[in-house]
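tool_log.txt
---
The assistant was asked to compare two proteins side by side. It first ran the structure predictor on the initial sequence, then on the second. Raw inputs and outputs are pasted verbatim so the downstream comparison step can read them without reformatting.
(1)
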Amino acid sequence: MAKPSYYVEISNDYLGKHKRVTGRTPREVQAKSTEQLLRWYQEEERAREREAVADVKEHARLTREHEDAESRHEEERNAKNAEIEAFRRGYEAGEPEAVERYVSLVLANSAYPEGFPREFGVQYRPEERTVVVDMELPSPEAVPRVVQYKYVASRKAIDEVPMKDKNFQRYYDSIVYQTVLRTLHEVFEGDYAGVGEAAVANGWVQGVDPATGKDFRSCIASCEADREGFSEIDLGRVEPEACFRQLKGLGATRLASLKPVASLRRIKREDPGSTRPERCWTSSRRGAT
C-alpha cells in the first residue's frame, strides 16, 4: 500500500521563482516550505538592497548628467549672448564686418514673391559712412507675362494671353525701380544706429547674350541716396521711375533691354577675378506668395 504524500505550491513573485514542496506529512511540508520561503525572503532582501543601491547610483548619475547638461547649456547661452552683444556693439560702433552682417540680416528678412532672386552682397565703407548693396534682379524671361487665360471653345483649350511688349517693358522697369527704392528704404529703416549716412543699391541681372550665346551679368540700375534726403520721400505716394530719376539713379531708358550701366559705387572685391564679394554675400529663401 502506497504511503500518502503531501505537497504545497510556493512562489516568490519578486524573484520570479516557483516550487512544489512535498513531504510525507503536512507538518513536514509546512517546515520545508517555511524554510524555502525564508531563504527566498532573504535572497529578495539582498536583491532589493542591491537594486536600491543601483537606483541611488543611477539617480546620482542622471543628476550629474542633468547638471552637466544645464551647465553646458548655460555656458552656450552665455557664449551666444556674449556673441550677440559683441555683434550689437560692433554694429553700433560702425565696425564694417558687423555692419555688413547686420544689413544682410535686415535684407534677408524682407519678404518678396516666390521665385524672386534673394541674393545680395553688402559692403560698408566706414570712411564714407556708406552702405553698398549689390542685389540680383530677375531677368525679363523670369518675370511672368501672362495677364489672363482664355478658354477657346472650338478647340476646348485654354490659351495664355501675354502682356503686350510695350506694357511688359513698363511693368519690368517698374519692378526694378521699386526693388531699388525698397532696398534703400530697408537699409535706412533697419539701420537704427544710423551708421550709414548714405546707401547705394545696384541691381544686377544674369542672362544670355542673344548675339553670342554667352552668359553675362551686368548692372542695369544704380541709385544712391543720403539718409536725410531719403527720409523726406513718401514712398507710398511716389511714381517709382520718377523717384529713381529724381535721386539721379542710373539706368537705361528701357531697363528690360538689360543695357549695362556703370554703378555709382561698386563693392570693392577682395578677389579681383571674382564677380562677388568674398564676404557678406547672402542667399535668402524667405519669400511671400
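(2)
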Amino acid sequence: MKKNVLTDGDSWLNRGLSRLFDILLFGIITMVLCLPVITIGAAITANMDVYLQCALKKDGKLFQRYFKAFAKNFLKATLIWIILLIVGLMIAGLVIISLGDYAKLSEGMKTFITIFSLLMALLYCLTFTYVFTLQGRYENKIGTTIINALIIGVTNFPRSIFMIALTAALTAVGYFFPGLIPICVLLEFSFVDYFAAKLIVPVLAKLGDKEAAGEYVEEESEEAEEADSEQPDEGKAEEAEDKKKKNRSQKGKKPEKE
C-alpha cells in the first residue's frame, strides 16, 4: 500500500518541511544572538556546527547541540571574532584611503594601497568563510585555527569564491535596498550557511575527517561516558573480590604429598 506523503511522517515532503523549519529556526536564533555584536563569533560557530550535523545527516538533538556549541566555543570564537573585526576595520580603512581624494598621496601610492587592500580583503573573506566552522569542529589554538582557515580557503579557491559570492550578493541587495536588510541577514544565517556547510563537508573529508568522509564514528552520550568512567572502579572491585576468593580457595587446599 502506497503511503500518503502528507500523513507519513517519514515522507520526503515532511522531511523537507522539517529541514526547512530547522534552517529558519537556527537562522532566527543566530540573528538574535548576534545582536550584542560581541557574541557574533560564538553564534556563527554554533550555527555552522548544527548545519554541519544536518549536512552529515545527524539530526539528533540539534537545539541542544546549538547552545552547547555556543557555550563551549564562546571564549575562543569571541576572540577570533574580535581579531577579525579589528583586521576588517583596518582593511576598510585602507580601502577608504585608497579611494579618497588625499592630496598627500601620489597616484602610484593610491594604486598600490588599492591593490594591497583588495588582496587583503580577499584573504580576509577566505579566512572568514572557514574559521568559525573549524573552531566548532576541531580543538586548536586560535592562531592555528585562523591559519588553517586561510590555507583551506586558498587551496579550495573555486568553492570558497562561490560561497563568498553568495554572501556578497545578499550584501549588495541589502546595500541597494536597505529595507530588505533583515531578510538578507536571515537568508545569510539560514540558507546560505546551510548550503555552505554542505560545500564544506567534502573539504573536511579531504583533510581526513572520518565523519565527513562517511565513515562510522561512534558518538557516546554523556550518560554513556559517565557509565564508562564508573566501569573501571567496578572492574577493580570485581577483580579484588576474585582475588580474595582465589586466595581463600588456595588456603583451603592441602599440599599434595609426593
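---
observation on (2): The chain has two domains: 12-219, 220-252. Confidence is low (pLDDT under 50) at residues 216-234, 253-258.
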